[in-house]
Sequence to fold (123 residues):
Amino acid sequence: MPPVPRTLCDVRAVTAPDAVADASAGALWRLAEPGRQLDANVVHLPARQRVDPHTEPDLDVLLLVVAGDGTLATAEGAQPLAEGALLWLPHGAARGLTAGAGGLSYLTVHRRRPGLRIGPPPS
Fold:
């Protein structure tokens, strides 16, 4: 049977204040459909928590702030983030995130990484 479009989750429900009140940092939802070409996650950072600055060498990432606020650290300085902000995080660019006083929830989307395979080393 061919794949069909469908609703995957209600982002408002998984990021509602009562849903994240006791949540630790991490993914609230993950795209897990078989045969997909993308990876996507809804991630939550509790108040004042952070993702340390790092560089993704291989993948561009789209990030959409879906709840809360915070700051994006870049090589050019800090950028404020608020609900509705859509960001392009190009591969090779250093970036870090810090949640504001109410926490920060965001959706990330990027090309799926191929799975690890066991086999002979490339020639």
About this structure: The longest helix spans residues 11-14. The mean pLDDT is 91. The first strand starts at residue 26 and ends at 30. The chain is about 5% helix and 50% strand.
